Structures are given as C-alpha cells and as structure tokens.
Amino acid sequence: MNVQPPEAYATYKTYSAQLLAWDSSFSAFMSLKSHALTALQIRGAALLKIHHTTATIMGRCVPDPTDPRSIVTAANDPLIFSQSTNDFQTVVSLSQSLVAAAEQDIQRGNGRLAGGLTFSTDMGVVAPLYYVCIKCTDVPLREQAIELLGRCPRREGMWDSVLGVRMIREFWGMEEVHRQLRQGMVKLVLEDDGRWEWSWRDLHNGGEGGGVGYGVKEMLESQI
Length: 224
Description:
Layout: H1 6-33, H2 39-59, H3 71-75, H4 78-82, H5 85-107, E1 119-120, H6 126-135, H7 139-151, E2 155-156, E3 159-160, H8 161-182, E4 186-190, E5 196-200, H9 203-206, E6 214-220
Parallel strand pairs: 1-2
Antiparallel strand pairs: 2-3, 4-5, 5-6
Helix pairs in contact: 1-2, 2-5, 5-7, 6-7, 6-8
C-alpha cells in the first residue's frame, strides 16, 4: 500500500508551489535582463533552467494518496515520465548548447572558462543527462543524452560522466531483459547459489509458456 504520512503530501504541495513560483520569476527576469547578460551568465541561466526542469520532473513522481500500489512502483511508473517528454527535451536541448559552447572554448584555448576543466565541485549537466537516460521513455532523446555525456568526460562532485555512461548502458541491458521477461520471451532460471541464468525462448516452436532456450546464453551472477 502507498502509505505516506499526510504531512508528506503537504510538503510536496509546498515544494511544487515553490517550483512554479521560481519558474515564473525566472522567466520574467530573463525577459527583462537577458539582453544585458554576458555569454557566461547566459550559460549559468541555462544551467539553472536545466536543474529546475529536472527537479520539476522529479516532483511529478509523488503518487496520489489513493494509489494502492507501493510508493516504489507508483513513483517509477513510466506513464509519469512519458508525460514529461517535452521537459526532457528541454534538458537535452539546453545541455547540448552548453556542451557545444564548452567544446568551442577548448578549441579557442579558453577551456578554463567553461568545460575545459575535468573536475568541478558544482553540479553541471552530468546528473540531469543521466536522469534523462534512466527515466525518459523517448528512446531517441535517451540516445541524444548519452551521446552528450560521452562528449564531455568530466566529474561534477560525485557524478562521473564516463562511469555514468557505462552504468546507463548496463541499465539499458537490464531494462531490455526485464521487458522481454514480461513479454514471456525470456526464460529465467534461478540457481540455489544465488546465480540466475536467462535465455531466449523459441516462441515460434514452443509457444510463450514453454519451449527450449536457444542461441547464445548469458550468465549473470549476483551476490547478496
């Protein structure tokens, strides 16, 4: 059951209102002052918009109090994220502009201004792009996001873009296996020692409920 204390939903409403108020103020500020901002300040504004948009998407994941599902299932419902495709597009588009600007800085020898550094204690585009890759339901957008991560190898606090790309690829592989399992196209065998093995089913000959695995098997080991 989705059992959450009433004050949790009150807090959510407060934060949602604050996000809306921030966006309204930010839009008004940019309309009045953007022409007077330097290129570096414009990049900073774009980064603020990226993080605000990401936080807004996260805020939509709070389930309804009447939802009978567990909070983990409800908060990770793909339907929620499919309704945020335009916001994911905003994150990717703005990140693309920042990455391109950073690459130009490096080519011009001004890399220390933005993008030339390989480590920063501040949050940049790595975490938002990682979030797009994991949560966005639009496959082309996810591919754009991981391509951008590959173009800007750097660390931002705990976020490592190179390691992030590897984790995303592994996650996508697990995601595909899970999808095939739900469709009955994969046979999963659990071993007594905690290992688990999967193989493709022969749906044409054996049907969804049976059949013998064929082709190349992949063994995945997990330890608790």
